[in-house]
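Students often ask why we bother encoding 3D structure as a string. The short answer is that it lets us treat folding as translation between two languages. Here is a chain of 181 residues written in the first language.
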Amino acid sequence: MNSAETDCAAAFCHAMLTPDGRRTGRLNIAVGKGLNMRKAVLLGAVALLATAGLARADGLNLIEFRQTGMDLQSSGFAGIRAVVAAKGDIKTLEAPAKALQRWAALIPAVYPKGTETGGNTKALPEVWSDAAGFQKAAAALGEASGKLAELAKTGDADAVAAQVKLVGAACSACHNSYKAK
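And here it is in the second language, the structure alphabet:
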């Protein structure tokens, strides 16, 4: 496993797979039911390492890898939103917010030329024709997620709730420009 794959593995919160191994993109974090965010991050990292290791044995499929990463990003962010909505322990959100920040830094790397088609990709051609804009959008997500991690560390629930909206807006901005509906 190379360092980019290891960094990707560290960036994920929790993978949800169907019994036959397909990604669902659904949240499976039982907040308040024995599975805290730290355990969810660890479990997700282990799942990704296992998945990446298997993918590596057959040759890494970057489209599948990035789709899994995006599903994990979505699940992790849903977990963050759930804690905020439930008025849970905001300080537990620092690690998953940092994970989102690390993943955002890796997003451009999992969209190299040659992965424009195949694998049921929903990436629009603008990912490659407007690479600078795509990188800027990923950086905006990283910055918003980093700020969220800082605010979570302080335990300021109102500031975290406001920042969660900004992280969501960063996700939406990228999807609106670079992802097919």
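Translate back mentally: The two ends are 33 Å apart (CA to CA). Keep this in mind for the problem set.
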